[in-house]
Amino acid sequence: MVSLETLPDMIDITAVAADTRLTDVDRICDIAKAYHCASTITLPCYLARTMKNTIGYDLLHGSVTGFPYGGELTSTKVYEAKQLELLGAQEIDMVMNIGAFLSGNLKYTKQDITAVCEAVKVPVKVIIETALLTNDQIAKASELAASAGAPWVKSSTGFHGKPTTVEIVRIMKDAAGENVKIKAAGGIRDLDTMLEMAEAGAERFGLGGRSCETIFRELDKRLGRENLMGYIE
């Protein structure tokens, strides 16, 4: 069972908004180091910065491709994924071609995912953008990503307003199967929801820097320990 103490180990702390600045990247690195997060995820241009900032810490370094809409050419996604791997990315979050999926072009959607997953040796987390899908479509997209060879299926970019819920995580896990891991992201704002999602099958969480700050302050309070955030402000 996942506990409050182990939740930070499951968090990818992110800085992937269009207006992300170097100060935002430095901030998530400081928080990740203080709380022992699983990884930092940032835009491709900032990958080297996160790696430099966290030398000597047991953190994974990740980035994104096809982000945030998924409509790039497959060859573009493949090239970017390869470049990220060469630069040192240890995980890559990829947005599936959402428009192709919603158009019913499942063959193209699957081929797009497979091409990226096979192009690199590092794990690829396929973002299906649940905020734009019905529950039936969420199940279908999760199943499709799994059959395409994705080791991870991720719920959302967080850019479309509709938050990921415990029920969405459960649908994704049931559809993707036991051999595929689930990452919940988008609108996750409290510890209890995260614990419920972990019970439903989530093995990783994607949280922006500001969300992490709020959640970690609450974590320190509930664990009855000194607020670690105070040391990095």
Description:
- This protein is an alpha/beta fold and 233 residues long.
- The chain is 44% helix and 17% strand.
- It contains nine helices and eight strands.
- The chain has helices spanning 22-35, 47-53, 74-87, 98-102, 106-119, 135-147, 166-176, 191-200, 209-223; strands at residues 11-15, 39-42, 60-65, 91-95, 124-127, 152-154, 181-185, 202-208.
Query: What does the average pLDDT come to?
Result: 96
- How would a crystallographer describe the biggest sheet? 8 strands, parallel, barrel
Briefly note the structural class of the backbone.
alpha/beta
What is the radius of gyration?
17 Å
Distance between the termini: 32 Å
- Globular, elongated, flat, extended or rod-shaped: what is the shape? globular
| Unreliably modeled segments | none
Number of strands: 8
| Helix and strand pattern | EHEHEHEHHEHEHEHEH
Enumerate the strands of the largest sheet in spatial order, edge to edge or round the barrel.
Answer: 1-2-3-4-5-6-7-8
DSSP strand (E) fraction?
15-25%
Approximate helicity band: 40-55%
Number of continuous helical runs = 9
